[in-house]
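Lab channel / #folding
Pinned by the channel admin:
"Please post every new chain as: sequence first, then the structure tokens as a reply. Keep commentary short and put observations after the output so the thread stays searchable."

First post following the new format, from NK:
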Amino acid sequence: MIIGVDFDNTIVCYDRLFHGVALRRGLIPEGVPAAKEAVRDYLRRAGGERAWIGLQGRVYGPEMRRAPAFPGALAFLRRCRFLGIPVRIISHRTRRPFAGPLYDLHRWARLWLRRHGVFDRRRLGLRPGDVRLLPTKAAKLAAIRRHGCTHFVDDLPEFLRHPDFPSGVRRILFDPQCGAARRGPWRRVGGWREAQAALLPKDKATAGLFLAADALLKKAGLPGAAALEPLAGAANNRVFRVSSGDGELLLKSYFRHPGDARDRCATEFAFCRRAWELGLRCVPRAVIRDSRRSLALYEFVAGRRLRAGEVGADSVRQAVSFWRGLNAARLGGRRCPEASDAGFSTAEHLAAVARRLARLQGLPAACDLDRQAREFARKELGEAWRRISAFVRERSRRLGLELDARLPRREWRLSPSDFGFHNAILERGGRLRFVDFEYAGWDDPAKTVCDFFCQQAVPVPAGYGPMFMRGVLGDLPRSRLHRERVAMLMPVQRLKWCCILLNEFLPVGLARRRFSGSQAQKAAQLRKARVWLRGLWRPWPEGGMGKGGGHGIR
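Reply from TO:
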């Protein structure tokens, strides 16, 4: 949906301005109604066509700064931005008047737009290129076609009836005086409130978020929200860029489900706030949260996501620096919870993956695709799991580790969890900002290493394994043993990530994707899981020393 809107007499209301200027210049008596058409008709009847042309030049030029917008026009543009609907202002307006002083009419129009916040990203957010002021009707018609408008709002019936008006574009006649014929190739609206009801979707959920964001900003002592722009790419939550008079922030609406009791909002907000207390600026600043609605406002980080293949030594060094900064002061100590899916013994790691696998193996056969996923989990994943379990038990015995022996508390480390470059934003200048800490907390550092190299969206080459392990495990009292544990746990965590790829087949996972608006497809996820399983036995540097070997599974 792209909405095109005329400018003069559609967004800008000139009725009282034409009347007032004409009175001051002695062109009309006071009895003429305060309407543009009434002033025009009076002057033409009095033989004052040249006076009318000169009056237009004056009003559309330097007097324009005093013209108001039609009631609701700017609110309509604001609502379009809030809903993420593109708007193009396309107007037939000559550069110079036909008579009188040669004002630059385009300049005065753009000054009016700037004065009313149309180009202000914190208010209405149109770009200068979204406004086209064109010298002829033909050029205006071509621009409507070129910009791909699906709807066009104009005050002139003759323009909407033009034989070259682009076919397929829905015509909206803006007629606040109700003076045009009701019948025509258009939908007639009497004002912008009616236009909003006719054109814009009634998204109550998003409207509620906008009001909640506005209230949160004011509670934080900041100017209220001007616009809410949904951001793509979030797989678990709904994320928006919030514009206010003080700049831009990020609003996060967290997924909640009866089958998942984790308070993601509280976890992530507390993690970011404590990281800032430690002086770590590679995470967004936490501003304010609404625990009842599971909403939080954060600093908006401008930049872009890393792409697969872009990860290099500098990226890994920044990740290590972040990790070491978190654990230098232990981020508030015992106030931090355990990470989601944390494990502190070999048995706990095995049990966590076994639970995921059991859920997939018990999938109901709702459709053929669900049956395929269930059979994949029962056969291929089941066979891989039996081999992995046997390997882990044998390797634990060789290392002298009891399966149920828990790591000493001093060897726990704070983990961002789901840590990787899929959750990083690259700023100008090359600095990385890490995001998404809703599962953060205390965890086994060997598991963190495995997860870091298992995430698939922006994979980390295994060649950086020794470098990352030195940074994460190097300060542990049994660092060599923990490197051996990474090699032992790597196939366990790889199979866990294979299960994670199939979350869309589970009720809670599917509900989470629907909440966030993610378009992940079950069939695509099943294909990815099959490919990932084929790479399950990829070698991993034995003990982190880079001497080949692999994990020993055959």
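NK: The longest helix spans residues 368-399.
TO: also worth noting, The first strand starts at residue 3 and ends at 5.
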